[in-house]
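User: Please predict the structure of the protein below. I'd like the answer in structure-token form so I can feed it into my own downstream comparison script.

Assistant: Understood. Taking the following sequence of 344 residues as input:
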Amino acid sequence: MQTEITTPGSLLSSDGSLASVGWARQPLLDCNLENANFYDLHFMQPIRMKRWDYYALFTPRYFFSATIAHLGYAGNIFVYIMNLETGDLHEESLVIPLGKGISLPRNSISGDARFENNISRLEFTIHENRRHVSVSWPGFQSGKGIQAEIDFLTDPGDESMNIVIPIAKKRFYYNRKINCMPASGSITVGDEVIDVNPENCISSLDWGRGVWEYRSFWNWASTSGFLPDGRTIGLNLGMGFGDLSKAGENGLVLNNHIHKLDKVPFEYNQADYMQPWHFKDNEGRLDVLFTPFKDRTATTNLGIIYSQVHQMFGVYSGFAITDDGEKVEIRDLVGFAEEHVARW
């Protein structure tokens, strides 16, 4: 059920079809979106393509996230920060018509993402062994302002979850999820300075490119943290966004090595998202309970364009089994799980 891509190549063939379908431990495919061919009126294609870079950071007390996204017809810039102890959350976003001023890289291994106007400035840059996130939003939280300078530490040998899947006949999704990047730097909100120390702060990246159907639905769950023995551990789980017959994005990440999982249903109560969520795979290698403590609901309603996400923050407990049979106990690992519906 799981097709692994192991050789470099292009994402799209000359006729616009996917050259490969499956998952990979490294981002092996060149994201040549210029070859896309899903509309007879080719000049309409750019307004249907979706591209985003989403960074997330857990510190012992705070969760911080910053995103630069280009949805074709509009851009979306957002930053939010949450106190994990109190649940206090503040989020601000901008909708940018036609994505004016947004720059996103072709691939996830090089190039920079940038946006700047008279309200905010976000820069995501890639350097040797690190990714740097720089945020300046002076009016954030009623003028308190937020500033962030954070390094997300990486190594060329670190593995990540990369998937290429078809959506309907001509659409597709190319995604890279990097878990368990130790982080260093600082975040300043008003007069408070939050130190980011790689010994206890850990981060992730969701890098997505593709073309979706107008009505879309997906689930995503993610966590990154530290085991008592000092190893890093992460989970990335997802479903609902395309044809997963050849591969999905489910995996355990242990010390930056991917242990691929097959099918992992999302069992949760859509009438009450605060009830526990259960994740149990079809091969007996994963059984974790996710207990939420905060519902971050983000809604965008522009008429024909609509998006709502319930991003639940909580703790994961249970176990996962590696490729070589090690049973890894997971206890109170902070992370999130979400449901997202969209007309976009």
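That's the full token string. The first helix runs from residue 140 to 143.
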